[in-house]
Amino acid sequence: MAPGRKRKPGKRYPCGKRTKQQLEMDAMSTVIDARRRHFGVTAKQAKDERLGTALGRLAFREMISETQYQAGVAFAQLYRDHHATVGLPSPSPRSVAGLLINEGIFGTTPSEPAAEVVEKLKRRFRDATDVLDGCDREHRLSPGKRPTLLVYRVICTDQDALHWSEDDIGNLRVALNALVRLFRL
């Protein structure tokens, strides 16, 4: 018997390495087990991609509608594209390597996007932030936190919102409804 740990089961290449498909299946099973333990869902529910983000978990628990979720996803993509194009750092980088790539230290292409693409992106982002600012002005006397702050926390920094007050969830819904109208969803 060879010394060392026992080989993991699964398909292998002739050289002995495990196949890419087998490695992906192992990684996915780890994610599913973690989601089952952490969120208290079944194995089938754990495969739902919405459980990967704070906004998705709100949609999964039906605290926001599917249309509101789609508006939040669209705003998240707009936010990331705007920050990457303008050169602003991510509010919550996933890793040091990701931060270095986003800051242009390594791994980026030297080409700049076209000026009209940058202007269009800036205009869309400005329109979205103007809509969110309008929500803040309209709901300044309502209880709970400002809608813009809640959108930033859930979408941009991925802060868990399952235990927020009903007032805060209501203000988040107001902001997401405004984004639904803006993105015409």
Explain the overall architecture.
- The termini are far apart.
- The protein is built from eight helices and no strands.
- By secondary structure, it is mainly alpha-helical.
- It has helices at 20-39, 43-46, 54-60, 66-86, 96-102, 115-138, 147-156, 166-183.
- The model has no long low-confidence stretch (mean pLDDT 83).
- 60% of the residues lie in helices and 0% in strands.
Q: Mean pLDDT score, rounded?
A: 83
Helix fraction bin: 55-70%
Strand content: under 5%
**Count of runs of 4 or more consecutive helical residues:** 8
Query: Runs with pLDDT <50, length 5+?
Result: none
In N-to-C order, the SSE pattern is: HHHHHHHH
Shape: extended
**Quaternary structure classification:** single chain
State the end-to-end distance.
62 Å
Count of extended strands: 0
Describe the secondary-structure layout.
Layout (H helix, E strand, L loop, with lengths): L19 H20 L3 H4 L7 H7 L5 H21 L9 H7 L12 H24 L8 H10 L9 H18 L2
Helix pairs in contact: 3-4, 4-6, 4-8, 6-8, 7-8
Short description:
The protein has eight helices and no strands.
Sum up the structure in keywords.
mainly alpha, 185 residues, 0% strand, 8 helices, 60% helix
